[in-house]
Each structure stands twice: as structure tokens, then as C-alpha cells.
Prior knowledge:
single chain; mainly alpha; MetI-like fold; 12 helices
Amino acid sequence: MQRTLARESAATAARSERPPRITLRSLLAGPGWVANALWAAAGIGLFVLVWTLIARQLGNPVLLPTPAAVLEGFYQLLADGYLVQDVLASLKRVFTGFLIAAAIGVPLAMLLAYFLPLRRLVLPLVTLLRPIPPIAWIPIAILWFGIGDKPSFFITAIAAFFPIFLNSFFGGTSVEEQHMNAARSLGAKKASLLIRILFPSALPMIWTGLKIGLGQSWMAVVTAELIAAQSGLGYMIQTSRLNLETSYVLVGMVTIGVLGSLMGLALSGVERYVLPWKRK
């Protein structure tokens, strides 16, 4: 009897020491990047399946090509080198405009958040210009800069400026006055208040503005390239549409979506190091 009880207790202890079984259901229900990746893969797979069924039902590749035809078009454009050239052209315009907007928007927002007279002077003008969509600036950009990279730089900078400026400004104005007064009581000058108090306190909102601004700039460059450029993903989409090459149009659209998502993920990854306290 005692031996039997000992065996049963040993078996129970062995079962309790075994690691839990990992199943697909447990992975899908669990937290972390594995579950997110599985759900994302399932969603994309379901979308591709529905897309394939609809394309086959239509039977017209000009209206809607199948995912296989789009994938074939992707390999063709990649092998010819056109896709890489257009991607690089679009990325150059996006990052140039984005950097211009950040270099102007963040310092201007900090100055307006600190100096009340300057805020009263400049903020009404920003409020007036902000509702104008970037696409409305394209005719002006063509008149001022012609066709090529310069109008695209201008449009992407306009698109990124307002999200960057507004988020930075609200971040600067949300700094508690007692922190500023404490720094003043310790002898901090205006430059030190801006650099060591105002800017670090506003950095989370600044980073949010940078992420939104980069996304807006990426969307605006495609719009600008549809009209005011002779290269880039937007230009590729436009020429493919005129030639009734719908698979190439969808290649450009998918490429835009993938690159935009990767840029957002890259900024979120950098944010963990720039704002380490947000990881907690």
C-alpha cells in the first residue's frame, strides 16, 4: 500500500514538473509578439484568400488581378530595377521633407510654448494654414519649383510640419509651471529652461508628432508624385494606370503600405531608446 502511494505521488510530482504543452490555441490566446504575429498572419491570409476568390470571379485582370499576378509583377519590376529606383526616389523625398519639417517645427513649437508674445503673433497664422490639405499646395509647388524633386520636398515638408509642430507645441505647453519655477529658483537661464526643462518634458509628445508626421509625409509624397514628378512610386502607379497594367499599380500600392509600416515600426523601436521610461 505504501509503495502504491509512493508511486502515485512520484507520478503526480513528475506530471507537475513537466512544462506546459504549447499549442496553437495557447499561442493565439497568449500575450506578446508571437500571438500578434500569428493573428496578423491569419488576417493577411484571409484577405489574400478573399482577394483571390473575387479576382477569379471577375475574370478580368485589368479590373482586379490575382495575388499571383501581382507577385509576378513584383518580381518583374524588381528584376528590371525599376521598383528599386522608384522606392529610393520616394524615400529620398519623404525623408528630406520630413527632416525639413522637424528642423523647423520642433524649435518653433518650443519657442512658441515658452514665449507668450511670439505665440500670440505666430499661432493664428499656423491655425489658418493648418486646414489646407497638402494636395492643395501642389499647383503652388509646381509654379515655384517646377517638376522634379523640389516640389515633392515642399509637399512632404508641409504634410509633416503641422503634426510635428502641434504635438510639440502641446507638449511644451503641458510642462508644469512648478518645474519651470524650480529651475528658475536654481538660477537657470532662458536657454537652459528651453533645452533642459521644456524640451525633455515635451519629448514624448514630440516623438508622437514625429511618428504622425512621417506617416503624413509618406502619404503626401505619393500624391505629389502622381502630378509633379517623373519618378517614384506615385509616378509608377500613374504610368501603370495609363498603360492598364493593374498588377503594377497594386505592386506600387502594396510597396507603399509595407514601407510605411516598416518606417512606423522603426520609429517605435527607436522610441524605446529615446524614451526608455515608456517601456515600463
